[in-house]
Write a structure and sequence with these properties.
Shape: elongated
Mean pLDDT: 82
Number of strands: 6
Order of helices and strands: HHEHEHEEHHEEHHHHHHHHHHH
Number of domains: 2
Helix content: 55-70%
Largest sheet: 4 strands, mixed
Low-confidence stretches: none
Amino acid sequence: MRKIIVLFKREYLSAVKTKSFIISLVLVPILMAGSFVTFLIMENNQDTTDKNFLVMDHSGLVTEVLQKAANERNENEIYNSVSGEKVLPAYYLEFVSPDYSDPVQQKIELSDRIRAKEIHALIEIGSDVLHPSDSTDKDFIRYYSETGFMDNVRGWFSNAINNHLRMLRVEALNLDPGISSSLFAWTNVEGMRLADVDKKTGETINAERANELQSFIVPYAMVILMFMLTLMSAVPLLSSVMEEKAEKIAEVLLGTVTPFQFMAGKVLGGIGVGLTVAAVYITGALITLGNLDLGNVLPTGILPWFFVYLVLYILMVGSGMAALGATCNDNKDVQSLQFPAMFPVIFPLFVIVPIISNPAGPFATTLALLPPFTPTVMMIRLATPVTIPVWQPVLGLLLVILFTVFSVWVGARIFRTAILIQGQKPSVGNLFKYAFRN
């Protein structure tokens, strides 16, 4: 045990005392905060370059209305009311008649003008847009631009056109325009949290409005943090062990320690690094949220689960990375193994959204009970407002413990055999032979 502790100190101090570790520890939150600040700056400093649009109105109903709406916007909305500074772009409309003899060629010519930056977009209104039905394909409003879906100018045209079409329908029904506005009133369904009783004081807690951003950001941040910590502490063991093997450092160390002690010291060093970074970031987050009166944003009850799962995850992944590193002879071997070895770590990142959307569903529940994915997926589920039955994280923890013990056992057998072997490629056959054959 004493030798393992010595190796642990060696690995831990060699990692945390480096300049790169200190820089990365400080740089990551700065970059995250910087991206948020950049978003705010960009949001408050919009592009004020005037935009020209083509409008092709097959219905003949909205031409004058669009021109009037654009003029009113250019006169009243694009300048700051206090400073007089221009804060939004002006919209200038050009109306074109449809070419029914060759509509495709006309679209190509107009699209070329958009590509040449002469105009920003083309808006096409179908002839039956006033009375849409399933039996016609002429009840459309189409917006052609290079930016497509991401172009937020579409919303302005949609509102202007649809508001006018609503008024035309009201007039056709001989309704009083003064009272018809209530026909189009839209009442949003508010998302609310559940009412509860404070377990400590017994006081009732009224239901509050749910914060949709919080419901997504907190679980997303938790899984990204666990991924980043694993990336910093466990994954580097793959190349670290390979380098010590290639430079004959492993042979020197194995003169005084056993292969298991060697591997254990390196993996425990990775756990120490991961816990250090986690403690710094989580403490910083709690202090920052507390100062901003947002202490209830982060559910502190999940933090014990986070640290337990984190330790087991780094132990699981780190033992596998150390074992694979022992089978590598050079950087080419490391590169060929890196992505397959990291797949269990990366995979949960691809399913974050469906899990957050339905954390109690069969897909999320099943994936959370598969040990290679349990730590990250279970933390996503626990960080959401949805109540997860206690037996699921407990069962997941037991399965992770069993799988981690198996991973360490297999990793130790591979490490013991491969660390002194030179020249053999880390193939599946060799890995199986190292793990299950004497």
